Amino acid sequence: MDALMSRLDALVLKPEFAPFLSLLKGARNGVVYGSKVRFPHALVMIFLFRSGTFREKVKLVLKATRHHARNLATFAMIYKASMIVLRNISPAGSGKEGRYDSFFAGLLGGYAVFGRQRGSISQQIVIYVFARVMLSLAKLSVQPDMHPLSSLITPEARAQITQNAWPAFASLSWAFVMYLFRWYPDTLASSLRSSMVYIYADSDHWDSFRTLFIHNK
């Protein structure tokens, strides 16, 4: 067994196999990470807020976990394979990564895995990523030499923007979501809408001490 493991170690450490083995490990890590992240979230959300038998809820948890893990694994393989191809078809012929290779590889993976399906799990992932992208772009927008208007932002103004950006972003996010929930609830995602109904709408109704403090309805 030791001799076999030594041969396998030597095989996987060969440089010529590295690009292809990185695809396999990317898929492996996508499955593991997707399962670790999605399973506890789905377990809590489904058992707290979904109706149905215990067996039906377990099936929903496993389905959500499998879907998330498969999406991340598939995206990882498409992205890494695209990066390999783009490096090898580089006009410079250097085999090095281009400045925008990651953008185009992400574009292809995003379309293939998340853009062609509109399920709630895919929407949650994309919305999560979108929010993080917007925060990153906001930080970059005030950095020196990032765009033609960067020279107009003084160090003092940059410090003020950085200090107040998060409070403004958080306040406006909650302002808009509460407005939408109040007047256009059907436009919100069902999971968000149901949680807001539970907290903000159901709390306006009770008919006894029990439904006031002990049980919602």
Automatic annotation (TrEMBL):
UniProt protein name? Peroxisomal membrane protein 4
State the species of origin. Answer: Penicillium canariense
Q: Please give the InterPro entries that the UniProt record associates with this protein.
A: Pmp4 (IPR019531)
| Alphabetical list of PANTHER family matching this protein | PEROXISOMAL MEMBRANE PROTEIN 4
Q: Which Pfam families match?
A: Tim17
Return the GO cellular component terms, semicolon-separated: peroxisomal membrane
